[in-house]
């Protein structure tokens, strides 16, 4: 197959990718193939589930809302149209379910209310923008809405594209106009009153609200910034806002980033996580408890890992999601006694969406629900009671057997970095006997991690399955800077982007070669976002790679800083300024080291990517051409930060595998 052809649909690899996708997504079958979100009503049994039920392999996969009984199972559809449904949350009395819904391709999410007894859905609130999240008040009568202005950027983890503006309909010849006063991007707070049937905006003109939650009846706590652009999130602080007059009080100014905001039912304690973060919406770090009156901060120390979700069970007890190396855990913390209790932990399961998010069920200690999965086990809803774990399987278990056809084994592995630091990762082995050709797949971030995540999801999963089917091993390292090992493990990458993290990765490959697991002559590297940068960077620093695929990279940190919607990211992780001649912006830019590259390199980007614009892939491609390196660039016209729609996902998988087959054949 010539991976440089524009149309690959008749190629064997594209058709193989299509067959795998059909086997996993089962389009048109009416079967649930993924579980994305869950909430449990007050009675402890009735649950709302949002999951994927594919209609075809075209566009974005729809996510639909269902009801189930977590003790019996079964699915009752609530929504049936081609929509993206998000954020399902029961009212405290369990009688009404609120959720967000938008037709596929619009991103214009609106509030919907489902009457559980009558089994009826109706649209609830008209707001000036699209709704990102919602929270019920404790009396069931009001819903707090986080609203983004039409034209505001979507976070990097969800594609890093600008949402559609509603106020302008330019003709094809009209220019794109940008300014420093893009008020249309502002994120605001609204309250929908169910009794009065009114929806009003809280007057917070001076703040851009990234996250918020009720803090009592007349106040909300918010993670907010003065800036409205996406980069403003990196400097956001914790505020209290009066819902009537919009007056604000600063409660905490962090050193790093804040997220996972959640207030206890009485409004007397604010829980929030502070962490070094590379992407909005991906927060894993230290739990803080903030007194809303005094602003006093209690830092909760939980050893050897990162808090990844926060939900109050009652006034004093908090249920926490936690990642600890290879382990996924649910913890309970008492804010009065300061006692920590482990509800459940396992090294056998991970969770979708990057991090585990246990949901407390009622007031009974240790009882919670969460979505669990593994590389070869499709997602299921799990409920803990004491130390017992029960499963509600909503997806046919045979789906996991389909994936197992191409994956012989998945192993957690350790190795030592040159400075002696213990580094962890995962090794996915194909059928057959080694030594195998290996593709090192570097995750995004850098503050993210590989964990036990279902292979039947996203372009990552499909591409990895196609690689495994064709005989390639996949190495997924978690170098320093990765989540799940505590903030002391993350902090060294701050200001040293492309430094010791590079050596961690190379040491991992040395370990695999020494153990005779992989073939040293057939080592490839790929990755997206940070992984895209690191792929480009590695081929400038080491000659061992037979082929490379760099996706959504930052290859010239100076030009990326000046064209990206998150320039603050660069300053944090390079520890420098773009206008410092001879500084890290230049020294750590792959494009500045292109003369050293010998590795055939495929560069891939999305034309709509606001985070790492497509010009970054083009720059490295052009630089490598100057030095006679075998290289190519592929830009998907309708994609952003990563490839997320069909059939582009099939094309992407075929091109990636085709590039490796050309330069380091598996057989």
CATH evolutionary superfamily of the domain at 406-663: Alpha/Beta hydrolase fold, catalytic domain
End-to-end distance? 15 Å
Average pLDDT reading: 93
**Sheet with the most strands, sense and barrel status:** 8 strands, mixed
Please count the beta strands (DSSP E, at least 2 residues each): 36
H/I helix tally: 11
Q: What structural category arises from helix and sheet content? A: alpha+beta
Stretches where pLDDT is under 50 for at least 5 consecutive residues are: none
Report the CATH architecture of the domain at 406-663: 3-Layer(aba) Sandwich
Strand content: 35-45%
For the record, the CATH class of the domain at 406-663 is Alpha Beta
CATH topology of the domain at 406-663: Rossmann fold
- Helix percent reads 10-25%
Shape: globular
Rounded radius of gyration (Å): 24 Å
Order of strands across the biggest sheet? Answer: 29-30-32-31-33-34-35-36
């Amino acid at each position: 197959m010539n991976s440089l052809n524009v149309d690959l649909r008749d190629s064997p690899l594209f058709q193989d990718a299509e067959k795998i996708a059909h086997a996993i997504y089962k389009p048109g079958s009416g079967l649930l193939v993924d579980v994305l979100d869950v909430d449990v009503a007050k009675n402890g049994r009735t649950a709302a589930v949002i999951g994927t039920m594919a209609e075809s392999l075209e566009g974005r996969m729809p996510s639909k809302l269902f009801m189930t009984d977590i003790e019996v199972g079964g699915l009752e559809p609530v929504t049936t149209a081609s929509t993206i449904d998000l954020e399902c949350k029961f009212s405290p009395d369990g009688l009404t379910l609120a959720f967000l819904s938008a037709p596929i391709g619009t991103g214009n999410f609106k509030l919907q209310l489902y009457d559980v007894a009558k089994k009826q859905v109706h649209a609830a609130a008209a707001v000036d923008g699209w709704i990102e999240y919602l929270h019920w008040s404790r009396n069931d009568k009001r819903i707090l809405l986080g609203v983004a202005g039409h034209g505001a950027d979507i976070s990097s983890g969800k594609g890093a594209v600008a949402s559609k503006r509603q106020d302008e309909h330019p003709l094809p010849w009209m220019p794109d106009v940008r300014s420093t006063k893009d008020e249309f991007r502002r994120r605001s707070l609204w309250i929908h009153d169910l009794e009065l049937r009114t929806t009003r905006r809280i007057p917070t003109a001076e703040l851009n609200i990234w996250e918020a939650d009720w803090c009592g009846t007349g106040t909300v706590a918010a993670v907010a910034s003065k800036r409205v652009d996406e980069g403003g999130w990196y400097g956001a602080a914790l505020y209290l806002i009066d819902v009537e007059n919009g007056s604000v009080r600063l409660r905490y100014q962090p050193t790093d980033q804040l997220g996972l905001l959640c207030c206890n039912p009485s409004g007397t304690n604010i829980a929030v996580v502070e962490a070094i973060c590379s992407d909005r919406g991906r927060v894993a770090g230290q739990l803080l408890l903030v007194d809303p009156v005094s602003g006093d901060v209690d830092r909760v120390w939980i050893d050897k890992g990162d808090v990844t979700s926060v939900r109050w069970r009652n006034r004093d007890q908090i249920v926490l999601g936690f990642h600890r190396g290879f382990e996924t855990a649910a913890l309970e913390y008492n804010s009065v006694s300061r006692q920590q209790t482990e509800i459940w932990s396992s090294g056998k399961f991970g969770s979708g969406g990057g991090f585990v998010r246990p949901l407390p069920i009622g007031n009974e200690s240790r009882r919670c629900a969460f979505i669990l999965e593994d590389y070869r086990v499709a997602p299921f809803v799990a409920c803990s009671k004491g130390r017992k774990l029960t499963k509600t399987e909503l997806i046919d278990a045979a789906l996991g057997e389909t994936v197992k056809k191409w994956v012989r084994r998945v192993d957690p592995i350790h190795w030592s970095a040159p400075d002696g630091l213990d580094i962890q990762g995962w090794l996915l082995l194909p059928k057959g006997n080694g030594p195998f050709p290996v593709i090192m797949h570097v995750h995004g971030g850098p503050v993210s991690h590989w964990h036990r995540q279902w292979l039947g999801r996203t372009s990552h999963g499909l591409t990895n399955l196609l690689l495994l089917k064709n005989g390639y091993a996949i190495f997924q390292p978690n170098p320093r800077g990765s989540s799940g090992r505590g903030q002391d493990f993350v902090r060294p990458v701050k200001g040293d982007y492309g430094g010791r993290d590079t050596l961690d990765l190379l040491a991992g490959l040395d370990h695999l070669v020494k153990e005779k697991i992989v073939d040293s002559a057939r080592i490839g590297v790929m990755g997206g976002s940070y992984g895209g940068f690191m792929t480009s960077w590695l081929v400038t620093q080491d000659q061992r790679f037979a082929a490379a695929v760099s996706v959504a990279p930052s290859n010239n940190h100076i030009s990326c800083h000046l064209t990206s919607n998150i320039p603050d990211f660069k300053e944090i992780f390079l520890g420098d300024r773009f206008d410092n001649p001879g500084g890290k912006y230049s020294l750590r830019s792959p494009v500045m080291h292109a003369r050293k590259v010998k590795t055939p390199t495929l560069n891939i980007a999305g034309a709509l990517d606001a985070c790492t614009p497509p010009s970054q892939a083009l720059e490295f491609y052009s630089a490598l051409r100057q030095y006679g390196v075998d290289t190519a660039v592929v830009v998907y016209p309708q994609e952003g930060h990563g490839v997320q729609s069909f059939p582009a996902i099939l094309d992407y998988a075929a091109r990636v595998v085709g590039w490796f087959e050309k330069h380091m054949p598996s057989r």
